[in-house]
């Protein structure tokens, strides 16, 4: 998460009770908001970070929301705008909102679809933002052309044009898994040491690996200095048997949390660490967002982990 309005966080970092109550009321909308943002940003983790920012913005604007209208389209619009901001500077936003110039008369009334679901949504990252939005909303989320036009500030003709271009490009692409992101060997050693100490419940040793000014984000719960959080204590107090392992989610290096289920370990969530100068300077934990991990196209766990 890049920015947070401190109005919703007390001095120690936890989100205030009223904001948590707001999150509870929209709980059933979270998976679809995340799915959209994950496909727009190309990362289930970046997607959740964008959703977190969008929900803080929505909470700040609740007094301006017309409660006679459905909540989901309003939230999706805020999340969509955050995605466009995430994708780049003003030029990217202009590109994402400008493709309304193609003549509507040369296009079919309803462009033929490519197919539904995962076969499409994991490839849309190859498209420019406007085409990506239109293909996602039409072919994956089944929005009407009119609803999409309203969301992206375009016309039905512009949406049809973007759909035609996007579908043509996707039809020519082979499906492929994203290439793994490379990690420096020194970083890998540090993460393995973190995992080793965490699994021994050596909390003093874990803290030695974390810089004094490290930042912590526990999605939906806490954002602030690691030093002011009960983070490791919360893990120590867990009643379920869990451990950490090195892994990858959609090709990105992460630490995977696994919970014991009878005779095997099952991936439960994951943690994203930022490393600089041999120390951990940032931790993002998706513990409280169970919709994130199932949205990943691939999950790899280090096979050296004992069963």
Q: How many distinct folded domains?
A: 2
> What value does the average pLDDT take?
81
Q: Alpha-carbon distance between the termini?
A: 34 Å
pLDDT < 50 stretches: 1-12, 90-117
CATH top level label of the largest domain: Mainly Alpha
CATH topology of the largest domain: Butyryl-CoA Dehydrogenase, subunit A, domain 3
What does this structure look like?
This protein has a 7-stranded mixed β-sheet. The two termini are 34 Å apart. It is α+β, with helices and mostly antiparallel strands. The radius of gyration is 21 Å and the shape is globular. Helix 8 (145-151) crosses helix 9 (156-171). The chain is 42% helix and 18% strand. It has helices spanning 17-25, 30-41, 44-60, 71-87, 90-97, 118-121, 129-140, 145-151, 156-171, 185-199, 203-208, 231-236, and strands spanning 210-218, 222-225, 242-249, 252-261, 264-276, 279-285, 299-301. It contains 12 helices and 7 strands. The protein folds into 2 domains: 6-171, PhyR, sigma-like (SL) domain (Butyryl-CoA Dehydrogenase, subunit A, domain 3), CATH 1.20.140; 185-301, Nuclear Transport Factor 2, Chain: A (Roll).
Short description:
The protein is of the alpha+beta class.
Chain-wise SSE layout:
Blueprint: H1 17-25, H2 30-41, H3 44-60, H4 71-87, H5 90-97, H6 118-121, H7 129-140, H8 145-151, H9 156-171, H10 185-199, H11 203-208, E1 210-218, E2 222-225, H12 231-236, E3 242-249, E4 252-261, E5 264-276, E6 279-285, E7 299-301
Helix pairs in contact: 2-3, 2-4, 3-4, 5-7, 7-9, 8-9
């Amino acid at each position: 998460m890049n920015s947070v309005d401190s109005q919703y966080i007390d001095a120690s970092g936890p989100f205030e009770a009223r904001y948590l109550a707001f999150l509870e009321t929209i709980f059933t909308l979270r998976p679809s908001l995340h799915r959209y943002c994950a496909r727009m940003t190309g990362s289930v983790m970046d997607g959740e970070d964008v959703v977190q920012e969008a929900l803080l913005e929505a909470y700040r604007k609740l007094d301006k929301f017309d409660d006679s209208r459905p909540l989901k389209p309003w939230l999706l619009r805020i999340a969509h705008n955050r995605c466009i901001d995430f994708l780049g500077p003003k030029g990217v936003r202009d590109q994402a909102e400008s493709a309304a110039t193609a003549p509507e008369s040369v296009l079919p009334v309803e462009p033929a679809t490519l197919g539904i679901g995962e076969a499409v949504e994991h490839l849309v990252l190859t498209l420019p933002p406007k085409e990506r939005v239109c293909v996602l909303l039409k072919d994956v989320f089944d929005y009407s052309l009119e609803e999409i036009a309203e969301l992206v500030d375009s016309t039905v003709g512009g949406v049809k044009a973007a759909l035609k271009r996007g579908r043509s490009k996707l039809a020519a692409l082979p499906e492929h898994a994203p290439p793994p992101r490379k990690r420096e060997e020194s970083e890998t050693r540090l993460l393995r040491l973190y995992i080793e100490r965490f699994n021994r419940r050596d909390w003093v040793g874990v803290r030695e690996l974390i810089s004094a000014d490290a930042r912590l984000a526990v999605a939906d719960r806490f954002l602030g200095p690691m030093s002011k959080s009960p983070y490791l204590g919360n893990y120590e107090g867990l009643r379920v048997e869990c451990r950490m392992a090195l892994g990858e989610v959609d090709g990105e290096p992460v630490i995977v949390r696994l919970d014991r289920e009878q005779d095997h370990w099952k991936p439960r969530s994951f943690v994203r660490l930022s490393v600089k100068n041999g120390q951990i300077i940032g931790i993002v934990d998706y513990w409280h967002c169970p919709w994130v991990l199932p949205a990943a196209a691939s999950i790899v766990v280090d096979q050296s982990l004992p069963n």
